[in-house]
Amino acid sequence: MGKPPRVFRRASEMLRPLFLVVLLTLRSAAAAEACRDIHPHCSLFKGLGLCAIASQAAIYKYNCAVSCSFCGKSAGPCLDRLQSCASYKSQGFCTTDEPLRAEYACPVTCNLCNSPV
Asked: FRET pair for 51, CA 20 to 30 Å: which of 38, 63, 70, 110?
């Protein structure tokens, strides 16, 4: 078999940018789904200025990531908050648990400090 006809090669070249746009859109949608509000009163918390309390940033990221504008950003110091993070990781929870929960509970052990949800 030789090269595909020129028409097919040109069509392939034309569709490549479209494929990349679709792929990037799907990745963005998956990241947006991982970063979400869990608590039902996040807009109230934001309105009260609670998102801006530095000492509470990690808990507000876990509960109200979208409303508090924490998506893709670190919230507070990157430290493991559970004593059982080694067990958490060995049971596979770093990759199978709710991403915001893994980032809140065991970000160091799960290697999430440099790639926040």
From this structure: 110
Q: What is the tens place of the pLDDT at every residue in 79-109? A: 999 999 999 999 999 999 999 999 999 999 9
Q: Burial-class residue 114 by CB neighbours within 10 Å (0-12, 13-18, 19+).
A: exposed
The label of the residue with tokens 């990759």 reads 95
CA distance 62 to 103: 8
pLDDT reading at 36 higher than 50? yes
DSSP states of 27-77 as a string?
Answer: HHHHHHHHS-B-STTHHHHHHTTGGG-GGGHHHHHHHHTTTTT-TTS--S-
Cα–Cα dist 21/16, whole Å: 9
pTM: 0.68
More confident residue, 78 or 9: 78
CA pair distance 21, 90, nearest whole angstrom: 36
